[in-house]
Amino acid sequence: MTTKRSIIMTIALIIIALIAILLIVAATKPDQFRVERSMIINASPERQTMAPESNG
After folding, report:
1. Mapped to the 3 state alphabet, what secondary structure does 3-43 carry?
2. Cα end-to-end span (Å), the chain
3. What is the mean pLDDT of residues 8-15?
4. Angle at 44 (CA atoms; ends 41, 45), nearest 5 degrees
5. Per mean pLDDT, which range of 1-5, 42-46, 49-53 is the poorest?
6. 34 to each of 27, 31, 43, how far by Cα in Å?
7. Cys-Cys crosslink for 47: which of 10, 22, 27, 43, Cβ 3.0 to 4.6 Å?
8. Which residues contact 35 (CB under 8 A, 6 or more apart)?
9. How far apart are the C-alpha atoms of 48 and 42, rounded to whole Å?
10. What is the largest CA-CA distance in the chain?
11. The whole model's pTM is what?
12. Where are the domains of the chain?
């Protein structure tokens, strides 16, 4: 029975250690982050039009 208890304690300690590592890594990350996206659209010059500006 002590072997079974020892295995359970070992597993519990490993889980606690993994949670602690996760929290430490999360604490070192910045509070804010930025996402940038870009897209290249291939269009012929005939298809490229300027969008009209709205002044209203």
Report:
1. HHHHHHHHHHHHHHHHHHHHHHHHHHCCCCCCCCCCCCCCC
2. 80
3. 97
4. 115
5. 49-53
6. 18, 11, 29
7. 43
8. none
9. 10
10. 81
11. 0.53
12. 1-29
DSSP assignment letter at 55: -
Model confidence at 51: pLDDT above 60: no
Residue 47 has a pLDDT of 65
Length of the chain: 56
- pLDDT higher than 90, residue 14: yes
Confidence grade of residue 22 (pLDDT, cut at 50, 70, 90): very high
Q: One-letter amino acid identity for 26?
A: A
